[in-house]
Amino acid sequence: QVQLVESGGGLVQAGGSLRLSCAASGSSFSLNVMGWYRQTPGKQRELVASITGGNYANYAGSVKGRFTISRDNAKNTVYLQMNSLKPEDTGVYYCYVLGNTIAWGQGTQVTVSL
Fold it and tell me: Are 76 and 28 in contact (CB under 8 A)?
């Protein structure tokens, strides 16, 4: 059974930074795409960032240049460094791993105040 445990969310003022972590267990995911979606009530879930097993990263246009996704395969963990945060970055961030099916973390709330 795949388990993804997220941490690092919180309340921060605009311009601040947060670092999200997602630790996976149940298998090794070094060859799998992992990343983060975010959800805001009233909006569709949005792919924020993803990273392949070969460390190729993709970002939503709204976060490009501000967020950095990385992974530590020895720790089976993916990180999302979020800088220059904006109120529109507010939402619940869900880590995922793409395998036979998609598996989700429990979500962590990110709130960016004005």
Answer: yes
